[in-house]
Each structure stands twice: as structure tokens, then as C-alpha cells.
Give the backbone structure.
Amino acid sequence: MYKGIIFDFNGTLFFDSKKHLETWREFSKKLRAYPFTDDEMRQYMFGRTNEDIIAYLIGKKPSPELVKELGQEKEAVYRDLCRKDSKNTKLAPGAIEFLEFLKDNNIPRTIATMSDKKNVDFFIETFNLEKWFDIDKIVYDDGIINGKPAPDIYLKAAKNINLAPKDCIVIEDAVSGIQAANSAGIGKIIAIASMESIEIYKNISSVSQIIHNFDEIDRNLFCLNSLTK
């Protein structure tokens, strides 16, 4: 039984991995003349900060100015892709119903994403996230926090909802995010196969369940009776 839940966002609550992949492939060609491979995407892009990704692409630690310039350029392209694809810019299957369940039962919850502030603000506005989340408790890439697979983001998210990591469930799609959650001591890690094959997750011992949508999450995992209405 668990007391709260922490969501990754990109590729989890919003199935946008292909948009990030498309954008970073173009930036990869710009920075090193050839695109990311699928394996590189999985290991060095998903769940990482822009600084981490740029460092990998150029083979050295980038200056803060370069990170800011390229990061803002890349994220603007990404947001434009989302706006142009309004039909598919929606929360993941079953997410709204699941979020309503969490809200109705007063289950502590937040988001832990390596997106930057501009993207988080875009998500809040586009998906009306304030309906289900305390915006001040969302953890994001503030330029200071260590990126996944470091555990920092999940430790901070659990603290923001006043729970020990062991009492939390994390929903993740990125391998680096799963590693971060495991290192943080999260009680239960659920992988959502929004783009990756489920075979990727079957080989990760810390993953206790693999889902394709939020209807597959057992509502009985939560300690409903212990919560104050």
C-alpha cells in the first residue's frame, strides 16, 4: 500500500517522446553532423537535462551560454510541434480519469520532470494541470538540480508531497528515470510503454509493473483510509 504518487511528464502523462526525438535528431545533425541513433536516444537523451544532452553531443562540458542558447532554440521548436499537432497534444490514455481518482481521494501527487520552466508553464496552460496538481510542488530542471539518473529529482518530489520515497509510486517511461527512482528508494516503480517496447522494461529488476495506459493501474495500491479528506 502506498500513500502518494509521482509522475514523470514527457512520455508518461504526455506521449510526446517522438516529438522530442524528432527535434533532438535535427539538433544532433547541427552539432555533430549526424543524428542520434535509437540506442543513443534511450541512453543519453530521454530523462536527461539539456546540458547533459548537449555535453554528450559535443563531447565536452558546454558553457552555460551555449546550453541556454541551444536549449531555448530546441524547446521552442518542440513547443511549436506540439501546437501544430493539437489533435495529439493531449494527456495520455486514461490519465484524466486516474488524476480525477487521485484528486477525489486526496492522494498526494506531483510531477518530476527534466523539462525546463518554459516547457512546464506550457504544459500547465495546455493541459490545465492546476486542476489536479499543486503547481508549486512540481519539480523541474531549474538549472541546478542534477538530471536523471541521479535520484535528486525524485527525492525532492517526495519531500514536496511530505512523504518518504518508500511510500511513493513513480510512473516513468525513461530508463534513466527508472534508475533515478530506484536510487531514490521509491517504493514501487511502474514503467509506461508509451514508445519503447515492453521488452526494454522486462530486463529492469526495479520495475514492478509495465503498463500502456493509466487504466491499468490498480487503485487498490493506495492507502485511501489513511488519508485526511
